[in-house]
Amino acid sequence: MNRTIFNGRQLGRLIVIAAALTTIARAQQPQAEAKKKGERKNAGPRDMSKIVPPLEETGFVSMFDGKTLKGWEGDLNFFRVENETIIGQTLTDKQPKQNTFLIWRGGRPGNFELKMDYKLTGNNSGIQIRSEELQDPKFVMKGYQADMDGAQQFTGQWYEERGRGFLALRGQLSYIGEGKKSAVMASLGDNAALKNLIHSDDWNTLHLIADGNKLIQILNGQVMSMIIDDDKVGRKLEGLIGIQCHVGPPMKIEIKNIRIKQ
User: Fold this and answer.
1) Is residue 117 part of a domain?
2) Chain-centre distance of CA 212, in angstroms?
3) Which is more confidently placed, 95 or 4?
């Protein structure tokens, strides 16, 4: 067996190198353990809902005192308050001459969020935002509408009352260019699948967001439709809020917990 003989100087260098390697190894060990702890485990499915939690609601102000229509104005032949709920209703033998609206007199919001619980029975209704009031006939509005109907054909879409008509159907992200008609930019989901999330003849939660040229409609926690409106002539960046009683077959719209954040 061959033996290697080191002199004092060589042996000293080896001792220094060995000590350095030991120090490096010890420094890297906690990093390796930390990395190992931070690695994803593939033991099973991960609950992704906890990564980004639900947004906490803050800053909303009630638009309804629960007892009267104070702060609202409309044809009281069709609107009333019962059980802390705003009710708009038509009957076969009690019809408005045209669609009539209960109008909120608390201002002309521009950028805002609007939330409420609603239940629709029968024909058709809708929530107006950034809208204008016609002087004749009285209590008639034109403008953006979060549409809804008893058959759930139109519920979840954006419509423009007395204006440009259908802007974004349920499941559509639509873009409106200067002087152009609305066109689909992307899909937000299958129309029929989204329809299954709507509660017919029961309570639904509606959340509307108006921010600059963007309008978003969220129903029962699901984005239903969205508009990006760059038509400077046709669009409105502020206006009135209203609740619709639709002419035609009987309908009943019930609204509670209506609130706004500006």
Assistant:
1) yes
2) 15
3) 95
